[in-house]
Amino acid sequence: MHIVLTGSLGNISKPLAAALIQKGHAVTVISSHDDRKKEIEAVGGKAAIGSLEDPAFLTDTFRGADAVYVMVPPNYAVPDNRAYYNHIGQSYKTAIEKSGVKRVVQLSSFGADLSAGTGPILGSHDVEGILDSIPGIALTHLRPASFYTNFYAFTDMKKHMGFIGSNYGGEDKLILVSPDDIAAVAAEELVATAPVQKVVYIASDEKTATEAAHILGKAIGKPDLQWLTFPDDKTRESLVKNGLSEHMADNMVEMGHSVHTGELRTDYEQHRPQQLGKTKLEDFAREFAAAYGK
Fold it and tell me: For the segment 137-163, what is each residue's pLDDT rounded down to a tens digit?
């Protein structure tokens, strides 16, 4: 099969490309950076250098593909996160329709079923709707849980303050996932015969915030590490103080609130994956500890 991947060689797309190439598929990897071309070719892929905001480029790249994997790269610098997602989503729609590709796998997010109250995930909700409106394609929405790699955002807090803190924590339940486990599911979906539309939830582990803090703390030599819960306004103040725009801080606080109330995971709990991914939080903790030490 000829498969086109977006996401350059990021945390998901790199292992995804490697898995597909190993199975003998021809893989084209889209990147906006020309300096990634050699790296893409080194793993056995074909590089397509261009912008996801350019429907003509995407159309040319998608044309002739048996399947495409589409995602929206996070961009915390944009003035309107939801508008940014919609813009990329419309670009994908145009390219899919004009290129004639029939198999599409989209990286969405758990919580994308909700139309309000989830902050940055509302962009994924909108993109799902945009792609749903394309007639005649077999479409899979991948809804992974919270990435393990998000824990890196708390590194300075752990080092300098000795705790993790947000507007969720304590006994709040966290649904967590490894990018490698997302890549494994995406690889299966891209080559599978699919119905007109389906949703696939992906998770690797489920822990309370307290349990997660203990596992990460033990790995970095701080077994008493706590995950404290702060009010929304204090969380927002801290995010802005640490360089996040007011717009994105509002988004992150809204998402955190939905984690705290449990609303974010409501549909996930009703459609849990039959099997969790193989990479557990203890596995990621070793990787986290190595990075923390540097």
Answer: 999 999 999 999 999 988 777 666 788
- The Cβ-side half-sphere exposure at 90, using a 13 Å CA radius, reads 5
Give the residue carrying structure tokens 């994308």.
112
Interatomic CA distance for residues 210 and 226, integer angstroms: 6
Helices within 13-162 (DSSP H only): 13-22, 37-42, 55-62, 81-99, 121-132, 155-161
Cα-based distances in Å from 143 to 5, 120, 137, 194: 17, 14, 19, 16
The alpha carbon torsion through 102, 14, 200, 51 (nearest 10 deg) reads -50
State the DSSP H helix or E strand holding residue 248, giving kind and residue range, or none if neither: helix 246-261
For 175-194, write each residue's pLDDT tens digit. 999 999 999 999 999 998 76
Exposure class string for 56-86: b at 16+ Cβ within 10 A, else e: ebbbebbeebebbbbbbeeeeebeebbebbb
Name the β-bridge partners of 165.
228
Q: Are 5 and 31 in contact (CB under 8 A)?
A: no
**pTM exceeds 0.90 for this model:** yes
Q: Is 15 exposed, middle or buried (0-12, 13-18, 19+ CB in 10 A)?
A: buried
Q: Which residues are CB-contacts of 48 (< 8 A; sequence separation ≥ 6)?
A: 4, 28, 29, 30, 31, 57, 61
3-state SS, residue 38: helix
pLDDT digits (tens, 9 = 90+) for 54-106: 999 999 999 999 999 999 999 988 999 999 999 999 999 999 999 999 999 99
Sign, CA dihedral 196-9-120-163, equals positive
Instruction: Quick: pLDDT tens for 264-294.
Output: 999 999 999 999 999 999 999 999 999 887 7
The 10s digit of each residue's pLDDT in 106-115 is: 999 999 999 9
Which SS3 state, helix, strand or coil, does residue 77 take? coil
Contact (Cβ atoms closer than 8 angstroms) between residue 225 and residue 164: yes
